[in-house]
Design a protein that fits this description.
Strand order of the largest sheet: 3-6-7-9-16-10-15-14-13-12-11
Structural class: alpha+beta
CATH topology of the largest domain: Aminopeptidase
Radius of gyration: 22 Å
Number of strands: 16
Helix content: 25-40%
Number of domains: 2
Strand content: 25-35%
Shape: globular
Number of helices: 11
């Protein structure tokens, strides 16, 4: 079975009352059944929900014309959805945050096509969580085998899964896929006694780090900046409009094009209202910056997503993207705040290194061996890097 944008649904395999299908549209899969698979995982996050993924397609953000051709996999057992995976046929590696450009270049230099490839991921969203939605470990392995089958039938170079949780890592290891490590920086609330307030959090830091944060916040305040925090349905259309203006300006500063459309955020405001907190910076009556954070009220997790400014204020980025969200997380007894992809500078703000994982399957045996050797060396370097970072932790030593 070859990936195609034409059929709405194609069968990959059937056996022992199990049927694996590829869907060209997520809307053809029952939303309640999909979300139930998401919510059953301890690592569940808002970005794997049916309404989030449908919005990416319906808003023309992650669509074939942008290089994201949906190939959603489902595994049904006796008519019930037992496992699923959000998969895309990709003809580039943009919007992934796990970089395989060197692999693509090596294929090209040897006269081979690396693209298109299969990608199991949430577009534009480097947040670890479940990718192989399934109740049984064996079902998650079956999804991986189905990915291999789809890739082989279409003569694709490879299949990949990005930002996996522990259960998906175990499935990938059992299926013989290659694992790759990365690093992100996450803030974790104190346990068992959470921080009482931001000052309590600052008191846990070394004196030098604490003074630096206090100085940075003071400079922003002295510039006349104040903040308004809007949660859920308190974020009005005009607020979303201003945020989107800031969001596009950030991409323009980097000579790039925004991945997400204004319609995507309009859909989020309607279908996932409770999952957003907007931090609006003002100088007097003028709005000058916005920072959007996604939240999971059930699991008490927050995710730094997007920011932008319409006026240049030194250090405003740190205030809008770290200090205000952390202050909000502490006040609302959230367990963790994920700061997004990369950024060693986040450690000075109390975000510590966390190892991330992706899984990869390459059809070409020689290239698979070469990549496996590379990943072994890269993985050892990542572990050493994390050890070094932990030695430079900003917190007071016990």
């Amino acid at each position: 079975m070859s990936p195609s944008r034409n059929p709405r649904r194609s069968t990959v395999a059937t056996a022992d009352a199990v049927e694996v299908e590829v869907h060209a549209e997520l809307a053809t899969i029952d939303a309640t059944a999909w979300n139930r698979l998401v919510d059953e995982r301890a690592s569940a996050m808002p970005f794997m929900r049916h309404e989030y993924l449908v919005a990416l397609d319906a808003s023309h953000s992650a669509v074939p014309g942008a290089g994201w051709q949906p190939q959603f996999l489902t595994l049904t057992r006796r008519g019930e959805l037992a496992a699923a995976c959000a998969v895309y046929l990709k003809d580039h590696s943009y919007g992934e945050y796990v970089f395989d450009w060197a692999w693509a270049d090596a294929y090209q230099r040897h006269g081979l096509a690396y693209y298109p490839k299969l990608l199991g991921a949430v577009p534009f969203t480097p947040v670890p969580g479940p990718r192989l939605l399934g109740r049984r470990p064996e079902d998650r392995v079956l999804l991986l085998r189905a990915l291999e089958q789809v890739a082989r039938a279409a003569r694709l170079s490879s299949a990949h899964l990005l930002f996996l949780d522990d259960e998906d890592i175990a499935a990938a290891r059992a299926a013989g896929w290659m694992l790759r490590s990365g690093v992100q920086f996450h803030w974790t609330n104190r346990a068992p006694e959470p921080y009482a307030d931001f000052a309590d959090f600052l008191a846990s830091l070394q004196r030098e780090k604490r003074k630096k944060i206090q100085q940075e916040r003071r400079r922003v305040a002295e510039a006349g900046v104040t903040f308004e925090v809007l949660e859920g349905d308190a974020i009005r259309a005009a607020d979303w409009d201003y945020f989107f203006r800031c969001y596009t300006l950030t991409y323009r500063l980097h000579h790039s094009t925004p991945y997400l459309t204004r319609d995507f955020f309009a859909r989020m405001a309607r279908s996932m209202t409770a999952n957003w907190v907007l931090f609006l910076a003002r100088r007097g009556a003028e709005r000058i910056a916005a920072s959007l954070v996604a939240v999971d009220p059930v699991r008490r997790s927050a995710f730094g997503r997007y920011w932008g400014a319409t006026a240049p204020i030194p250090l405003l980025h740190f205030e809008a993207c770290y200090y205000r969200p952390l202050e909000w997380c502490i006040a609302n007894r959230y367990a963790r705040f994920e700061g997004g992809a990369q950024g060693e500078h986040k450690m000075a703000r109390g975000l510590m290194p966390v190892q991330t994982a992706s899984a990869h399957w390459l059809a070409h045996p020689q290239f698979a061996r070469a990549v496996e050797d590379f990943l072994a060396r890269e993985g050892a370097g990542i572990e050493h890097y994390i050890d070094e970072l932990n030695e430079r932790a900003p917190f007071k030593r016990a």
